[in-house]
TrEMBL record:
This is DUF5667 domain-containing protein. Residues 170-197 form a coiled coil. It comes from the Bacteria. Keywords: Coiled coil, Membrane, Transmembrane, Transmembrane helix. It comes from Candidatus Portnoybacteria bacterium CG_4_10_14_0_8_um_filter_40_50. Residues 268-277 have a biased composition (Basic and acidic residues). Signal peptide: none annotated. Residues 228-247, 257-277 are annotated as: Disordered. The keyword Coiled coil applies.
Amino acid sequence: MLNFFKRKIKEYECRRLTKRYCEPDKDFLNTCREEFIAKVCREIPPEKAKRFSLVVLGFKYSLAVFIILVFLGSGAAVYADRANVDYAHPLYSLKRTVEAVRVELASSQQQPVLQTELAQRRLDEIKKIEADMEIISQEVSMTTKEVSVAQGTATTTKEVAASTKKITIKKKTQQNLEAEQKKRQELMTNLRNQMRQELGSVIDEIENKRVEKTRMEKLCSSVLQIMEEDEETDGDETEEKRNERWNRFQKNCGEFIKIDWNNNQNDKSQESENKRN
C-alpha cells in the first residue's frame, strides 16, 4: 500500500513538472490572441463583422450539440452492449456496432472467446424471436377465428354492416401481424447465419492452432453447447454444410471434450420422425 501511494505521488510530481515546463507562457498567449484578433478584424470588413459573429456563434452551438450527441451516443452504446439489449430494443443497433468494434480491437487470443460470446448472444436473440413469433402466431389464429365468427353470425342489414366493419379491422390487424411475423422470420434467419459464421471463425482459429491449449477445453465446451442448442431450432443450412461443420468441430475439439455427435443426430432424427407421425 505504501509503495502504491509513493508511486502516485511520483506520477503527480511528474505531471506537474511536465505541465510547468511545457505550458506556453501567458504573455505569449495574450500576444498571439491580440495579433489574431487584429488580423481577423483587418480581413473582415466592418459591414460583415456582425454576420461573422453570427457564424461563429452558430459554429459554437453546432459544435456543442455535436459533442453532446457523441457523449450521449457513446454512453448509450456502452450501456446497450453491457446490458445486452434484445433485438426489439431501440439501442439494439448501437449494441451491434459496439460488438463489431470489439471484434476489430480484440487480440488474436481474445477473438475466439469474443466470437463465441457473440454467437451465444445471437442464439439468445433467436430464441427470443421464436418466443415472440409463437405469440404472434396465436394472435393470427385468434384473429382468423374472429373473422370467421363475424362472417357467420350477421343476419340483419345493420348487423351485416357492423360485421363488415369489424371484419375489415380484423383483416387489417391480421395483415399487420403477418407482416411483422415475416420481418421477424427474416431477422431470425440473418441472426442464425451470423451465429454460424461466428462459430465457423472460432473453429478456424482452433483448426489453425491459434488458441492456447489452456483455453481449448472451455472454448470447445462453449461452442459445443451453442451448436447443440442450434440443432434444436429450424435450420436454414443444408445437411451437407451442417455435417461438415460438425465434422470439423469433432476433429479439432475431440481430444479436449467428449462429443457424441452421432448419437445426438440419431436422437434428433427420431424426435423429428415422432413429430411427423
